[in-house]
Amino acid sequence: MRSHGRRMGPGVLSPNLTPLLDVVLQLITFFMMLVHFGTRLDGATKAVRLPLAPAALPGSDLTFDRMSVAMDAQGRLLIEGRALEMQAQAAWWAAQAKARRAGLETLGEPNAAIDELPTVVILRADRAASYRAVRRALSEAQDNGFAHFSLVVLRSQSR
Amino acid sequence: MSTGAGPGMGLSPLVPSGPAIADGAAPRSQAYRPGPPEDVMFPVTPMLDMAFQLLAFFILTFNPSAETHIDLDLPATPAALPSAPRGEAPPMLARNVDSDLENDVLVRAEADELGDLKTLRLGDAPLPDLSALAGRLRRYIQLMDGRPLRVRLAADDRLRYEPAAQIVATCQAAGVAAIRLTQPGATPELPGRKLQTRKSQRSGASP
Description:
The structure holds two protein chains of two kinds.
Chain A (H helix, E strand, L loop, with lengths): L5 E4 L2 E3 L3 H17 L31 E6 L5 E3 L2 E3 L1 H21 L10 E9 L5 H13 L2 E9 L5
Parallel strand pairs in A: 3-6, 6-7
Antiparallel strand pairs in A: 1-2, 3-4, 4-5
Chain B lengths: L18 H4 L22 H17 L5 E7 L31 E7 L5 E6 L2 E3 L2 H15 L5 E6 L5 H14 L3 E4 L9 H15 L2
Parallel strand pairs in B: 2-5, 5-6
Antiparallel strand pairs in B: 2-3, 3-4
């Protein structure tokens, strides 16, 4: 059997490192392709503990036109670090819809005022929030023209 | 002719001429014959060091996100479109009233005092858990023969968001085409409550 090492001289053995290097470079490529530098953490906040739904399917990529909204355990929307009470939420949704319609009109969208908004609302609601609060937030968004929603959940306990 | 060196010896020094011939030794050819090529040793170790450092970096920063998202397409209510000129709004599917709403499968979730899921029903049939719901929905989808199955979720207002999200995720994973959420406070009466009401009416009517 032929030795894989290369004998340089008496007592000096130089192992063949090429296969090792191949494997290491393949591992580096694997991790480089899987690495996410915050792309999946859009709107993440430590104030929200996401619900655990193991049955959820792996999510596809989110569209560019999206709006992240977080909801705490009390059912309040967390906007830019402050919590919006229930009474102020409707006004906030209306302001968001108005701003987005204005943006669409600026972009030359002819039916911006009458169509459903193409924005995807990404809702990161706390697992302890009530279904009523979540449903109310979705209803208020619907009342203002939002039609596409994405509920963020965990498929397994994160580290 | 060989210089006298064995194979594998590489470049061997030329045999000195002159004196050896003069001494009466056998004449040797001075023609150069190259031996097997010498291996060029590329220093792999620094490269391997860097590769291992990169590998360690990626392993330490590798955090596979467990997050996923459940997509919901809920139609915007007509009241959301105040700027539409009367009669000029183009008819959109999402804004139309679902004509076959009665054919949707109704999933009802009732909560206990703590907000946990107490009772789960598909139509009137009680289900033990979410896996049973998924199995029933898959069977429905097979029976639908390619037609999309839609689910209306009527959850108790007291229910916490987590079990509600689990129900929605289960429906989505089972292959349901669309999920509708009933309005808050619009939880339909459960059969048990109906029976109770009828019984109480009977008992009230009877002398």
